[in-house]
Amino acid sequence: MQFLVANDNGNAEQDLVINGQRISAPNVFARVGKLVNLDELNPEYVLKHIHDNLIVSVEGAIYYVGAYALSSGQRCRSITVGVDNDKVSSDIVYVNTLAHIAGEAVAACYRESGAVPDTGDAIKVHVDMATAIPVSYYTKAKAAAFAEKFMHKQHKVTVYVGAKEYVVFIQFDFVKAIPEGVTAAHAFMHRPTLIHQPENLSAGTFKTLRVLHIAIGEGTTEFPITTGISFKPDFIMGTYNGNGHAIERVLDPFKRDFGLQSVTRQDFSRYLRDAAHKYHDAAMSYFMPALEDEAEEILTMAEQVISRANNEVDVVAVYGGGSILMREALEKRLMAFCTRAKIELAYIDDPSDAVFLEAEGLNAFINSPLFQLLGDKARSGEKG
Fold it and tell me: pLDDT, tens digit, for every residue of 105-114?
């Protein structure tokens, strides 16, 4: 089995594309001492919804991953906003990546055969993977260290599907980590209408397009400037701003006022997204004033970056999971600044595009001749 994996590890969500299959899951896990009795779980249901019901064993430890971890009542670990920018050494990134790839391998066997697979033989998967590192943290050495974490060894993952246990061996043949921002540039080159460019925009024209990215996440906002698919090393600023910081500021008073004990940042984020949830309106009333403070800081930094670049920017592109709720507080003021500077503002409209843009760019990259060339060089021992 051969997988092409585009892997975007956000502070809140992990977005992947595995052989064209889109996967989004909370980027959390819960490590548990032993398995509960899973005999009553329907294997077919689990296999059809594997990424929402992911229980795995990695290197001898048992983990509930993503949505299943959040719903389990177990103590969950997530990437801490403003602290864990080092995704290179994060065990959450490592475990969850292996878990989703292994889970997808078992689910693929089910889809291909149309029946619950036999557990007798181990499933073997070869993987080429592209991922991203925050541009303000990125160096070639860190990118190489991230790749080394996965390559040059075989990873054994056991996936638990009801009472059945599937052993999956994962071999990473090639892993390439690129800077965030460059990932989105690949998406824009693949689908230029995202940034209000003609659908038939030529590669030659795109190579000269100067884009300031405002990539608003849960814990960080990145402000790289790219020309084509290259970033300018003098403009690799990032700040600790995003939805997660606003949530962290209001979470304790919210829990206290409603008598809630174990509400996590991810739970609160779910209340915000789900308009039908009983706590949605209350969560929004706590959240929005704090979010406006985050938007103010992001706007200030964007203006500083554009001024430093002497307004030599063609497009400001705003995207990321944090951009959706921040739109009301940010877009009009940013538009006024861009209009004055004769810069086009492309605030990504579709929420699914805004959230999945980095993963889409990684998927475009991994399917490109450039990725193939880099992989061939790596396999032949050349540096590149």
Answer: 999 999 998 8
pLDDT under 70: residue ranges of the chain: 81-85, 382-384
Other C-beta atoms closer than 10 Å to the C-beta of 29 total 26
Q: What does CATH list as the number for 182-243+273-366?
A: 3.30.420.40
Dump pLDDT digits (tens) for 301-347. Answer: 999 999 999 999 999 999 998 999 899 889 999 999 999 999 999 99
Q: In whole angstroms, what is the distance from residue 281 CA to residue 317 CA?
A: 29
First to last CA, the chain: 27
| Beta-bridge partner residues of 214 | 318
Class of domain 2-178: alpha beta
The set of residues, in sequence order, having a beta carbon less than 8 Å from that of 191 and lying 6+ positions away, is 360
CA distance 20 to 17: 6
Find out whether 88 and 146 touch, Cβ atoms under 8 Å: yes
What does the DSSP assignment read for 162-225? TTEEEEEEEEEEEEEEEETTHHHHHHHHH-GGGGT--TT--HHHHTT-EEEEEEE-SS-EE--E
